[in-house]
Amino acid sequence: MAQRHLDRLSGLDVSFLTNETSSSHMHVGAILVFEGPPPSYTDLIAHVHSRLHLVPRFRQKLSFPPVPTSRPYWIDDPTFNLEYHVRHSALPSPGSEEQLRRTAARIFSQQLDRTKPLWEIWLVQGLTRGRFALISKTHHALVDGVSGVDIATVLFDVTPVPQKLEPDGPWLPNPEPSGAGLMARDAAGLAQAPIGIARRVEQATRHPRRTARGIAEAAEALGQVSWSFANPAPEVPLNVEIGSHRRFEWVRTDLGHFKKIKNACGGTVNDAVLTVVAGGLRIWLQNRGIRTEGMELSAQVPVSIRTDDKQGQLGNQLAAIRGPLPVYVGDPVARLGVVREAMDGIKESKQALGAEVIARFNDFAPPTLLAEAARINFSTRLFNLVVTNVPGPQLPLYMLGRELQDVFPVGFLPANHALFVAIMSYNGAVNFGLLADYDSMHDLDVLARGIETSITELVEAAEEALVETVDEEQPARA
Amino acid sequence: MAQRHLDRLSGLDVSFLTNETSSSHMHVGAILVFEGPPPSYTDLIAHVHSRLHLVPRFRQKLSFPPVPTSRPYWIDDPTFNLEYHVRHSALPSPGSEEQLRRTAARIFSQQLDRTKPLWEIWLVQGLTRGRFALISKTHHALVDGVSGVDIATVLFDVTPVPQKLEPDGPWLPNPEPSGAGLMARDAAGLAQAPIGIARRVEQATRHPRRTARGIAEAAEALGQVSWSFANPAPEVPLNVEIGSHRRFEWVRTDLGHFKKIKNACGGTVNDAVLTVVAGGLRIWLQNRGIRTEGMELSAQVPVSIRTDDKQGQLGNQLAAIRGPLPVYVGDPVARLGVVREAMDGIKESKQALGAEVIARFNDFAPPTLLAEAARINFSTRLFNLVVTNVPGPQLPLYMLGRELQDVFPVGFLPANHALFVAIMSYNGAVNFGLLADYDSMHDLDVLARGIETSITELVEAAEEALVETVDEEQPARA
After folding, report:
1. Of A337, A324, A318, A319, nearest in space to A385 by CA
2. Bigger pLDDT: A11 or B461?
């Protein structure tokens, strides 16, 4: 999607601004671990500069029109200063991964400045074994985990030798619009809105069947969302008032493990991910002395919705389903069975599309309405935590000739949500990034170790099942 | 002064809270450079822990009573976590002083969390020549640069071998008061207020002459402040809207230089400090293409007011005078003459006491009034920047056996003030810490180098004057 000066934010993107508070930040990002030696700060600045034209939004800032009910614009930042956005830091000795996580947690505890382009990249040197890290932090309004292109993404190459991607000429910012100019543009935008709707109606006339089906599915999906409201998520210490500070833990695992689980027990990789997160939460809850009998937690699972016809649709195509986390089930294979059955039912019921309908509605609502609409999405009544599983590339990536070794995604905490589990696969690995509230989740490491234990249990069960299958297929010759 | 659970903030201390915004932070601190090797994080934590009982306020947090017109209390933080407040970081290679200043500026760009005790200490390793730094950051409401005791202060010893100062027993926090409890305490406080005033009246009866003199001086001083309002500070690019981000520069110099200037040209060390700051600002303004003919800037110069009778007085005894910065004078000795004459006049006119009267008034005003009163103190109409000169110890200090080599004080930026110059002497050195707004003061290094040039010029002029004096006293023998 083009990223032009004076583009207007989509409704969903505005909701990431209106829902942001001093304790609930709406930036996301990743910790990227590379083989060393680290590049110099000057070389990194030059590299970022050479690729910035690929992500014009990263030289743009927010401009709020004088009428507060209007959605803000993206405008070129005439005082853009790359050294502000790209920062250089280091780990204290010995440079452990624990120290890297702590540094990242501190960086993610600080809200981005809304008067500047909404991103930062930190070059962190001094990690053990000669490694270094990039910590990327971008506002959710600027990028989403599914369809968006982040600044970190464009820094990579698929070969050790960096590709030449310099722009044709120097970047020339458009002048900052005056308040009166934005007011006039606002009026024009309001006048154009009916045209957009008219175009949809026109399409409906030309493709009557597609539209009729779309309406039927949307109605069904909205029914599903109403049902969800009547079944609130259980009360657990994941849903408490949160502060502005964060903790971060990670879990490394292999894509091969999840394929083995899928082959032995069926279901999708997503089902297995929810199963081990539920297993980790079970261990964490029990460690806190909380009984898990009969308890099923709810995860909000963002998914990407892509329809055949993308015309007339704007912005962030993020949707969400309500995934089950049956913490009451101790046996890993039985737990996977419960998750799988529930997820199959959800897919049939088109609940996912329901969420997408809410998101699309946002596109036409002024921010004052959006604040309410987005609050519905983030309601603790609907889900206990976010679990998002983002597929990444299955080949090695390089930055300035250094191989990317690990990616750990970092989510965000909506109000009253003390935990966000983000999962990303890359080059044969599946890594979990656990972002949590600093004070209320002081025992986040118990959860991380619990997820590791659950993965091991499920993999062992899968291996046993596969051995049994082989035994059945090839009876032992006496 | 005792620092008890449920102490109420003084009026001036409340003003530091009410004046704080997301772009105008009210924390202060210092960069402390030590000879290496750095202590381990564990050793530093243990050391801070062993001295915390000397500054009880550093384990206390703010508690806001249910009635918003009441002043908040300090209460023990029952979830106090020392690892949150003491942080470990490092400089990227090569570990230059420029990188240390940049790291400190980033730390000072972030507002303290009001739900926790209002301080942080950062252990920063990796400074060149084996050195390390402590960066201390404390809210102005918790400590002031003159009479207050900061956490950093109690970490020092006057000998390389640390003194044993362990507390007698473990710290036991008082329980957090309920809203109802604070409400009751509020009512009691209101009832007690007249008693405090009554006691003053009683003292007035017993010491009629002292009170009469005090009233006369206060009246005279208030007249002086009114005069200041009629003479606004000139408009220069130091007084612009500021953002939340900071730059930091420093200037190292010797106390011997200032003594030489004093001996040759007269005046106080403070006069010489204002003279070289004015000289630096002159160079900075001219570098920006701004004409300095006839221009005199105004500095707010905080001073400590101590009277014989301290009874009945509470909190922060910080006062301020309006110091002249005659940037129109090119000749360093002539500039010092102008500063000296003006400062002598100010001392006679009791303008300093006037500021103290404003501060004392704050003690009895609810926060809603204070916000207005404190805004008067920080008005750009009165001064262009703050220049504060804090005398430090003239002997070497040690922390965990490591000698403190340099101290650079860090001030704060009131709204519409892009520069704060803090000066501190320590062990024969006089160091300038220049805190500035990141965007509007992009050329802060020009000012730092300008102050250095002005110091050199004034010292050379003083040396010439001293040689001439010697020549006059001892005529050359032919």
Report:
1. A324
2. B461
